Amino acid sequence: MGGSRNRQPDIRPGLGWFELPALSPGGALTAAGGDAVVLEAASPDGRVAFLVRSTGEGEPSYSLELVLRGDDGARPLMCLIRYARPDGRMRELLVPVVQGTVGPTASYVQLPEFSVGAAWTASVSLPVGPESDWDTDTVTTSIEAALNEATREAWRRVREHVGDDLRDVIDGALR
Fold first, then answer.
1. Is residue 12 pLDDT above 60, yes or no?
2. What does the buried/exposed string (b/e) look like for 9-18 if buried means 16 or more CB atoms within 10 Å of the residue's CB?
3. What pLDDT digit, counting tens, does each position of 43-67 carry?
4. In 13-57, where do the E strands start and end?
5. Helix (H, G, I), strand (E, B) or coil at 13
6. 61 DSSP 8-state letter
7. Within 13 Å, how many C-alpha atoms sit on residue 116's CB side?
8. What is the 3-class SS of 78-141, one letter each residue?
9. Global model pTM greater than 0.90
10. Which of 5, 48, 86, 155 could form a disulfide with 43 if both were Cys (CB 3.0 to 4.6 A apart)?
């Protein structure tokens, strides 16, 4: 497995990145032990829905369901989520979406260290291909964040379209 690549995406406005609304303290409230959508947002073009869920009692944990609307292709798409952790450092997660056999094109991931008021941005969803080049640590962390088999299956489909180095990283993380 190769080492970490330190490619940083360009997140200037107008280059495929957009801000998402911060989770407000009142919006983070859920019933005890419940699982509820506490924030819903969409990409500027309306093609991607971002549903933040809160689970757990006491200190909540957050997850993200990313739903692509109107996907007409068979190729996997990738969206990069970037948010500020409580310590101020940034966390990045790659979220793949692939048209399934039933239901909408969606993925479901944990948002480790996501918190109320966190600033976050997302990239537009781009097709995955041999030119796709992501930081290997981010790929591993992103696969570990998958919360369901549909998201892990999306990663398996992603691996079919990337170069050998990333394919090896994906295979290792899926084990």
1. no
2. bebeeeeebb
3. 888 888 999 999 876 778 999 999 9
4. 17-20, 35-42, 48-55
5. coil
6. E
7. 10
8. EEEEEEECCCCCEEEEEEEECCCCCCCEEEEEECCCCCCCCCEEEECCEECCCCCCCCHHHHHH
9. no
10. 48
